[in-house]
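Design review, sub-item: ligand-bound model
Attendees: FS, YL, KQ
YL presented the inputs for the calcium ion complex:
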Amino acid sequence: MAIDFLEAVLWEWNSETEEFYISPKIKNLLSIDKENIKLLDLFSYIAEEDRNELKLFFDEMIKDKIIDNFSLESNMINDLGQRITVEIQIRSNFRDGVFIISGMIKDITEKKQQENINKAIENKNRLAVEGSKDIAFWWNVRQNVISLNKRIREYIDFEGDKDIVISYTKWRSYIYKDDLSEYDKQMMKIMSSKTDEFYSIEFRILNKNNEIRWLESKGKKTLEKNGDVFIFGALSDITIRKEKELENNFLSYNDEVTGITNRRYFFKEVGNFIEENPNESFAVIFIDLDNFKYINDTYGHDVGDLLLVEFTNIIKGMEIENSLFSRYGGDEFLLVKYKVLEIDDIKSMLDNIIKELSKPISINDIEVFCTLSIGVSIYPSDGKDINTLLKRADMAMYLAKINGKNRYEIFDMNMLEILNREFEIEKRLRVALDNNEIKVLFQPKIDTETEEVIGFEALARWECQALGMVSPKEFIPISESSGLIIPIGNYIIEECIKKCKELSLKTNKKFKIAINLSDVQIRSEKILPFIEASLKKYDLDASYIEFEITESVIMKYPEKNIEKLKQLRKLGVSLALDDFGTGYSSLSYLRILPIDSLKIDKSFIDGIVIEEKSEYIIDTIIELSHYLNLIVVAEGVETKEQYDYLKSINCDLLQGYYFSKPLEFADAEKMLL
Ligand code: C2E
Ligand code: CA
Ligand code: CA
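KQ shared the predicted structure:
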């Protein structure tokens, strides 16, 4: 009974009777059920690597009846398959002439682990991490235990203040679940790697405050003499570096202003997509904000940035399925639409986008219009690599700009020709003024009542030496996008003022010459001083001059442009709203625009006698304009029916082929004189 109280297991072997006694505690030690345990049985529990040595030793002892007293350390494997470390004491002597071997078996697994901890600390020294904040650890792979330096308590809750020893399974439970599979994968790799090879892995753990910390585990696998596999290493906290890295990563793939992915990400993502799905069609959509530069220049970069954010939010808010939206740079964005089945789906999606942006966007109490020019290319028909697709979407976008902005174009091979023509025109246009190729024609405006000429609209003409006659519908947009409209426009303004002065000296009749002003011209800071100086130079009364501005030009930046127009009007010139009815057409805006007259667009005049709707619109415009004291001009009048109808509803002025085409100045002035 006394023996039962002992921690250790006692045993005795009689060499004469070969009787073997072992105290019942052995059952606990080895987790066995069996009663009658033989000496040979016991040997079978000794770990393989220790067994033979021990057996040999024992046999020698018996054979020569050596009297000795010693202890040795050995590993045993219990019936649960767990490895335990034991200290075996052996003592031999003669009792009543019989050679007896007896001893004790003591479980020293824990003590051994403590020793291993010390070894790990030693190892830690070898890893040269002493003095740092690193947490040394060792992990006995076969025994499924891991011991960590007490500093691990900064991360996980654990009683006591010594180094901790926990099962590896428990340790795994601290690892952040998203990182577990990668962690296990890395561990497998380490297990199958050569020993003494250093490894390094990074993973997150949720610390006791439920914060994510990044740890780096560095170490190496070693094989102990007894066959145990150990990983010795140290954990270091790399949270700060990792967060910086992630931030850099975020920044390198995300746009700082809008937060959406950037051009780099776009290239990476789409490149991968093509590689993985070479047979799946998708659309690359190049989006350019038409008036961003202007808004940036006039309201400042903060407003510009906010507009980009607003725009991004609008597109994101549309929740376009299977798409990737990135900022390409500046005011250029890229939308990739995957799973494209029909080009019509793309078209209706783009119609929606343009519609979404037709409403003014308010930023810091400023209302701005943000129209888009959009170009589309389709994989794989328009290009098999991302660079070609991008270049062609960009080309299509450029054409959308030339074709009047606020629209989209889908790339087709003809565009290459069209663009060639564009580049050719731009190239020739650069020398057009120097070559005296630009001139101005004058189209009379008629008083409906008296049928007398009351003025002219100046219309630019370009007869290019190389290309022949080029229509203003073709070269004006190109001159706008290239900035050439400024010198060309100035030339026309000066030419008109000069001719106007000439004519004013020839007649007492009052008349006006109307000059078209484009968007780019109005925005120019130098336009007002130039007009003022030209009027002065030719000593012309400003009331002879009128400027025509389209409503879409004004509505792009209403406040800014209205201010500019007011200043222009202060010079004494009059202003006409051109192409009325084709743009934003806010009748309520008519009240606040500083204009004198309004030109009903030809498309409505074309509908006279053909379409009741057009007539109704014309009637309404005239009525409203007269109420607002505006002069109404009908443009593009070609037939007698149109003329009769317009006269019957009191349209003030008429312009069109029915009366006269645009004429050389010499011919035009004859109509007045
Ligand atoms: P717009 O200002 O609307 O000019 C009226 C256009 O209609 C002119 O075309 C004119 O020739 C044409 N037109 C006049 N009556 C009739 C008619 O009865 N039937 C038809 N079918 N057409 C008629 P044009 O000269 O080709 O000019 C086209 C556009 O080019 C102008 O439209 C204007 O926006 C722009 N443009 C022309 N000259 C200048 C200029 O000096 N400066 C600027 N900024 N733009 C100009
Ligand atoms: Ca005009
Ligand atoms: Ca017009």
